[in-house]
User: Fold this.
Amino acid sequence: ERKDMDVAVDAPWLATVEEMTKRGRGLIRKAWGEKAEQEMANTVTHELLPGAAAIVDGYHYGEAWARSALTDKERMVSILAALMGRGHMKQLRRQIGYALNAGLTKREICETFSQAGWYRGWPYVEDALTEAKEVFAERGI
Assistant:
């Protein structure tokens, strides 16, 4: 092991967890609204594993999202498809609301589920559409 070859790394992507969390919360607010930021901060993970939640949220939202070339709508499509495909309906329901906040239409959300269903299976589409229908009804759309 040659220590003389070690060099300090000075890269803009090496932010502290606090910096990433602050940046991430700003992106969440911009993409999904203030209510979403509050909901994210009040999850069971934040309650029971706050240190882990801070690291995950900081890196996920404050790092991966910050460097992403995706638009908010494109990002939401990938989130909706992934959650539907994994069967995470509780998280999917929340993200459907955030997708609407980010500017996706009912049609775009339903088409996202239809497209992803060809790769995962139609029962997942039906479950996702059920969640979407309930969120749409709650919002009166």
The chain has a mean pLDDT of 87.
